[in-house]
Amino acid sequence: MFTPEEWTHLDDLFHHACKLPVEQREAFARAQTGDQPQLLEELLRMLAVEADATQAVRAPLRDIGTRLSAELPEPEPGTRFGPWELDRLIGKGGMGQVYLGHRADGAYARQVAIKLIGSKGRSTRQRDHFERERQLLARMQHPAIAQIHDAGSDEHGRLYLVMEYVDGLPLTQWCRQQKPSLRERVRLLTRIADGVQHAHQKGVVHRDLKPGNILIAEIDGVAAPRIIDFGIASQADEGAGEDNRPEPAGTPGYMSPEQTISGMDVDSRSDVYALGAILFELVSGKRPHGTTATGEGSSTGEPLRPSDRIDTLSPEEIAQLAQALRIPARRLRRTLRDDLDWIVARATQPDREQRYPSAAAFADDLRRWLDGYPLQAAPRRRLWLLRKFVARNRLAVAAFAALALAVAGGLVATTWALHRAEQAVAREQASNRFLSDVLTSVDPSISFDLDQTLMRRVLDQASERIRTDLAEHPQARVEIETTLAYTYQNLGDPERARTHLESALETATAALGRNALPTQIAVMELANNLTHGADPKRAEALLRDNLPSAWKLSDQDPILAPRMQSRLGWNLHRQGRQDEALPLLQHSHQTLLERVGPDHQRTIDAGQYLAAGLAQNSRLPEAIAMMQDLVQRQIRLRGEDHPQTMALRNSLAAFHGENSDFAAAEIEYRALIDALTGQHGTSSQMLPILQFNLATTLHKSGVPEKIEAAGPYFVSALDAQLERQGPDAANSITMRRVRANWLADTGRNEQARDEYQATLTSARTTFGEAHPQIAILLEGLARQELALGNTEAALAHAEDALVRMQAMPDTPAEQITALRELLDTIRNTAQASP
């Protein structure tokens, strides 16, 4: 039996040998193993399995490669492929070569990986394979998947694919060098599984997941996994007919049994098998052996179990593995047996019907293991569940045990501490009982198909009960009312949110004092609500009056004061007082950078406010550069598809549009729409916003084809908005007015007139006669009546609009001048008419 170091050496030899032609492998193996016959025997066995299992796919690919290399010389460093330039060869495979390269025009600063595939002598299947890989990669945008940047062909017809270059190590090699703990390995694998799940949601099955295809880079000292080489990936939605079934392909040990059978369909559960095999290797130190299968639903062999490996080790080998996993040797068997055994065994079941149904389910069980909760894969045994409870609540159980010993020993000195602990426990229990009672009071039968309705019902019940249930626990009441307010705000009900914040502030001030931390948090949240609501002046006063107290609380909460200062800056920004706002926004962001670092969510939030302030102060290049940096920070913190990441990217696209870089804005909006629909379909509330922004960008571009292409996006966005909020909502009015402008600019004058008229009716209902929107809509209506030849109606609307604009002190002079010119045109047209 080999030691962990010998297994590592064997693994390295195997992967090196696999890069050689089959006929050279045995000589290499004998030369490298020397006088170690057992090592040679095992290596030759592994190579034989690998060669047999993949010969069907490797042979034709080698033939292709041979023909291509014979017809076209290998490109030299400096060769251009579109705007990309080759630096040096970094790898070869059956489908082509991979080069390190860069963007020759300097438009992209980072190095890239350029994958080449020749075209002379190619087969149609080969070109299809390359095109399919490009399409598959383009679908996926996830921090755990290497991204595609470009694709094309050169003057010789050679196809190329430009991908993110990952400067990292294969997963197992990185583990050997960095020696992460067992928990760190499992945590890393959850992120990898999240990336696999993202690929599956895009319809992509990798089919060759293994440690060598997972590179680990380090970003600011944090491990960042990247899944690479989708070269044999298949689409999960491909048909199941014989012509669509992939050839057997993959790597022995990580291949699912069904992958070894020619003609058998392969689905996402094959990747689940590979994830389980990778977990087996990460925790046992041993590369899994290959698997075989005999047909659909039946297989030979057993699922993998890490404890099987442990049971074969000597005490010295157990000590070595325990040291690698950074856990005591005496706990190694107990740690791997049961929990991790169950996860690996379920993921690697030979019968795929018995595996985890998805990579997400696999990742969920890993997280349950990390958090100490019972696994979905585990049998339900009471003693085991109790053990999980104790492990999950070690501090509480230990505290209870210590308290019992103190009371039994008659230690009077614990009385005061017990009194303080009882107060804290009483407060926490009151909160927990309150929330538990409210949540469990909702009839489960109404929870289907309600979405926000269910959440609102729960919140409304909490609102009704909070005054009585928490009357004797003011701090708990303040915290929960603030939480309820935050939730109502996110659900689009700022009025209900404001009611709770007013109550929380009143309760906190009376019970805890003005300078207490919960009071200041309530102040900040209420001011934020008022800033975005109907009373920004009161919000400004609240923030200014309480900011000194917030700074004094920095030892308790180091981010409260800079957050409050950032909110004050944003308040002034919204009031149009940019000269006052910008210094506050800059100082608060800098303070958060110093206190909690660049990748903290509150620092990113403050940075977003600052970027908006820079843009408003005509410093758009600075704002764009800062927003690009914020997007990368948010991706590191939350991931590519997180709503906050998408919101920042939406702002970045808006900045590009304001900077008249409509092409960049369009690219960003389209990428966001693709990512959002791929993740949530058409149900996301953010989708109509993005569609509207894209439509507006296309309209402003000035390119006739793009202006025309804006129409369907306007329709989709407006339909969703009207369904959600109705025609009289403020956002609906704004969106309808902008679409009416588009209708006018594209010559759809009757539709434009009708849209202006309907929007004007809603605006009068919502805003009243004195609102600036009325004059703007009247002007648009006048222009359409003129275009349709209705000069009398056009004159009446234009005169009405001019009177309103002249009565408003903030109307720009150029707007009044344009309206007067319109009136002259209408009058001249009327006089010229017969």
What does this structure look like?
This protein is of the alpha+beta class and 834 residues long. It is built from 32 helices and 13 strands. Strands 1-2-3-4-6-5 form a six-stranded antiparallel β-sheet. It has a three-stranded antiparallel β-sheet with strand order 7-9-10. Strand 9 and strand 10 (222-227) form a beta hairpin. Helix 2 packs antiparallel against helix 3. The chain is globular and about 105 Å long.
The residue ranges in which pLDDT falls below 50 over 5 or more consecutive positions are 53-70, 235-246, 291-300, 380-386, 392-450
Average pLDDT score = 78
Which radius of gyration do the C-alpha atoms yield? 33 Å
Class from helix and strand fractions: alpha+beta
End-to-end Cα distance: 106 Å
In CATH, what is the class of the domain at 169-392? Mainly Alpha
Number of strands: 13
What would the CATH topology of the domain at 169-392 be?
A: Transferase(Phosphotransferase), domain 1
Q: Provide the CATH architecture of the domain at 169-392.
A: Orthogonal Bundle
How are strands sequenced across the largest beta sheet? 1-2-3-4-6-5
Beta-strand percent range: 5-15%
Largest sheet: 6 strands, antiparallel
Q: CATH H level of the domain at 169-392: which superfamily?
A: Transferase(Phosphotransferase) domain 1
**What is the global morphology?**
globular
State the helix count.
32
Helix content: 55-70%
